[in-house]
Amino acid sequence: MKVKVLCRNPDDYVRETTRDIQRVPRNYDPTLHPFEVPREYTRALNATKMERIFSKPFVASLDGHRDGINCMAKHAKSLSTVLSGACDGEVKVWNLSKRECLRTIQAHEGFARGICSRFCGTSFFTVGDDKTIKQWSMEPPGYGQKEEPLNTILGKAVYTGIDHHQTEGTFATCGQTVDIWDELRSSPIRSFSWGVDSFSCVRYNPVETELLASCASDRSLILYDMRESTPLKKVIMKLRSNTLCWNPMEAYFFTCSSEDYNLYTYDMRRLDAPVKVHMDHVSAVLDVDYSPTGKEFVSASFDKTVRIFPKDSGHSREVYHTKRMQHVICVKWSADNKYILTGSDEMNIRLWKANASEKLGVLTAREKAALNYNQKLRDKFQHHPHVRRIARHRHLPRAIFRQKRELREIKEARSRKEQNVRKHSKPDSVPLVTEKEKHVVTVVE
Amino acid sequence: MRRKGVKVVPAVMAGDDNDEEELSLNDEDIISASEDEGGSDDERKHTKLLEAISSLGGRRRMKQTERSEASLQVSEFSVNADGAGEKVNLSDLLGTMEKTPGAPNKTKKQLRNLQNCKETLELPLSKQETEKIQRGLAYDKSSKEVSRWESVITQNQKAEQLVFPLRQDPTGPKRMEQVVAGWKAQTPLEQEIFSLLHSNSQPIHDPVLTPVEEASIKAMSLEEAKIRRAELQKARALQSYYEAKARRERKIKSKQYHKVQKKVKRRDFQKQFEEMMKTDPDGALEELKRMELSRMEERMSLKHQNSGKWAKAKAIMAKYDDSARKAMQDQLEMNKELTRKLVVPSDDDEEKSDGEAGALPDFVNDQEPITDSINPWMRGKLTKEASEPEVNAVAEETSTVARDEGQDKQQEEDEEEEEVENEEEKLLREFDRKRKLRQDEDDDLVLVPQEENKTLPVDGAEQVARKEVAGEDGSKISDNDDEDEEEEEQEVVSEFNNLFNRLMKKSNPVPAVQEQTDGEELLDEGLVRVRTMEDLEALGQDIPVETSRPELVSETGTPSAVSTSEPPNKKKKKKEIDPNEVLTKEAKVIKVPLVPTVVEEEEEEVHTEQTAIIKEAFAGDDVISDFLKDKRKQEEAGRPKVVDLTLPGWGEWGGIGLKPSKHKRRKFRLKAAPAPPRKDQKLPAVIISEKRNTSVAAHQVSQLPFPFQNSTQFESCIRSPIGQTWNTQTTVKKLTAPKVVTKMGAIIEPMSKEELIPKQKSSETKKGAAIILEEKMEKGKRKGSEGRKLLLQQKKQKQKKSKAQ
Q1: Mutation choice for A interface testing from B127, B139, B703 by most A CBs within 10 A
Q2: Which chain A positions have a beta carbon within 8 Å of B738's beta carbon?
Q3: Which long-range contacts (CB under 8 A, 24 or more apart) does B496-505 make?
Q4: Complex ipTM, two decimals?
Q5: B612 band by pLDDT with thresholds 50, 70 and 90
Q6: Chain A within 8 Å of B523 (Cβ-Cβ)?
Q7: Of B525, B700, B539, B536, nearest to A49 (Cα)?
Q8: How many separate helices (H) and strands (E) can be counted in chain A?
Q9: pTM for the model
């Protein structure tokens, strides 16, 4: 029988003379001293795991509305202020840093359809189902004073959306027509209509500030120039698009959220096919907003999730959901590129981190360096199977998961059928239609 | 048309109640009249007639018109604008012009012309169409306008790092002028001081930058300077490199080297000259003259004529020494060449040669043909099999060699040079072989999964081959000729190779497609919520199962295929199939494709001849046995080795001729456990490398990720570390710089139109204040130093002027 004994050989640790440097025991096992690539690989793996573990995107929930939130707006000059309008016509002004409601206004009877802040941040506009456009001061009224709008315009039809010009005192509304208003006049200075009788959204281009785009109920997207008397162009798609958003850094790109569960990014110079089709949602997409850097956008969907898409990618990089969040109706990306705000059916506004695993607050230089290094490692090893698998894993609620699977099956079946049809018909008689071309019906000049 | 109508109106105006109708009638008449050629005369007559009629019953009609006018157009309160369509027309006003004598004839003529003008205006476009055109125009305009952003956008997309907000005030201390510019003297004391300063025209501050520096900053931005410097550096580096190269070459003492070098130069020159003849005939002529001159010089001088001191010495040696004789011959050759008259080849010849070169592949020209129409392999130096990879792998070298060879043909080479060429070729071939070997090894290492895929189809191919063999077996009368068999072997092998290649090609695109589908960064959305490190570990471990699935499939696939394809072999399944049996014995005779000229009578003779030739051609490479050897070698290498630890002479007698005892040997030879059976044990035509480490494979990337174009790129990317352990601080900072940087708490405004304006302008706006100050400063300066002289001069001038006045 072999007895294992702890043995210490003085030769290993005793110096020959006192002038020698201290002998440090060292393990020469090569597996303990890997080269740079294996080392960095392990680091990357750990970084990915840490990222997943620390990804807790939910920051806060703002409650106080008494009906579903229908529209939201960012304050033009203040990061911490957000405006929201609910389905009962109530408009609230929120302070995000304190997470409290600063002010409540009963702005409209019926829905508050649209809300937008003036470019200087001193006032904001709301439109509602009561056919009025109201301008409100950002400052709360003095003690004992009543909440009164600065200005009220009574229109002939219901307005469904509003957006303000980036630098001038004009704004655009949409309803039965798309109207351009001067702030100082009570009738529109320009009114565009092109055979459509209802619009759901109108947005100014933040870069080329004279351009506008709108979504109409006849499944079309229409472009306008404020200086021209006629609209510019119209694309008709297979299904209606709900909202659209211009890229704030790339003048000619805009993304629209569609009823067919997808989002489409268009180049306004080539409207015959979208530049990219973004798919991942399993129900109608209700709202979309670009990050202020123009690199990504966030979309809100009827399927109770919020997804973040890189602007060039066909699939989302992130999905946010909570048990209590119902249909997400509006979404905004904060102006400092850090947060996402969602307004949903169950009367809450939720604040999310745009980067799920980001550490909030001030970072020391070393922390920053470490984060950058980790990020770079993750990027470098992103194609390695383990890293990729961990980085991509997301939890989904069962319902959405099932629906997703179902959709995938449907899609596969369709493509299989198409293939079969192609196989059994004359060559070239069944043309190959790309995903991009599928969704556009026509472009009307 | 309207004008026509207008012209008649005055005549009709006198008409009764329904004059409108008449008007319209008249209109029609006029249309028809205008359509006629000589309508104007008729009209005049017609009007005259109408006038006559009106004059007949003048009174009654007049009354009627009066009444109607009063009721319709004249009101006691105001003039009614919308009457009964009787607008005042231009002709009403100008009708009197004809009669007034004062009006100049010219204007009258013009008016007449206007009235007689028969051209009709086109109908205006419908509203829809005009709107469409307007929309199109507006869209084009705005899309053009938007396109201005393209450069900015692409620049931002390509940028390594973007810093938001885009317009940030430069941090750090500001220049004094900028600080001062916004400041005003407010307190009375300050105002007083400033007024004093201004009255004395003192410069308020010293310039931070001298005007020269200012100008230089304006002239060249930092980036430009950097680019310029980089260019200069590059040029300098190149220069030094060429200098060094020249020096090195000059230092080389080898005569052989210089000789070769000279030859190359001459060849290059020749080539250049030929090209020049095509492109620049004048230059070529000059060149020709120069050559002629050199020829004349050569003819005049006794150089290269073996009349020098050295030549005489050599002449003595020549009897005994071969090299000396050769040297002398060389000299003479040189002389001959130099004194040879240059013949400008006619165009026809060139074309001919060109045509030949085009029609025939290069290797036809390579060697002096052993004119053998029978043997296809003897035409070229290398068989097609061998040449294909060569082309792929060493395209450059072969092409250069081929070019050289082509030129050799044209130039009628010396024997010596041919020898050199042959040597080169030999070397080349050797290289190729080595390279191929290396590639094979690499393939073994790298392409293991593909090999697994291959196994199945190869079996199929084999089976096909065998079937064909079986079909022809009856008809074929076997020669039992060994050589014949060998040839067949080769054929089969080449077929195999083809199949392999095809399969490789086929098997490659499949993963590519998969990659495309996978390429999009899909999230792996599942029902599992990951919260801890352990969960993540588990996630990581999921993969091998997934990745191994296709392998499993393929493995299960192979036996079934084998079983279906080879029922007779099933019994022997336990035994290892001998590839020799499989491959060689039952091979079929394959017609050599390029033997159409063989006469049938001579077939047998030809056949033997051919086989002999083929044997000769393939004397070196026996592919199958090579393969078998390879396989055996691999098997050997894979087998665990017996470690012999016996020490001869230890514990017993040792010395020459004495071996350690059996007992001892048994005791000290350590046998390892037998290795698990090889995967290719039962696959005769395949070698599956066992080197692949499955535990590592789970961590490796199986497909080339998207932005990379080849595996080396990807590998080099992975290989270069970015951590602090292996890099300096600055490099780490550079390498790990994030792509998007945002400032905390800063609102990122959308891109503004100032972004479009080049940055110089923006800097100007920033420096605006400074510039204004500088102007002031300059004024002050002028007043200060040079200004005094100027002032004096001005004063003098003024005085002079005043005197003159």
Answers
A1: B139
A2: 372, 375
A3: B496/B458, B496/B461, B496/B685, B497/B385, B499/B457, B499/B458, B499/B461, B500/B454, B500/B458, B503/B453, B503/B454, B503/B457, B503/B458, B504/B450, B504/B454
A4: 0.92
A5: confident
A6: yes
A7: B536
A8: 6, 30
A9: 0.57
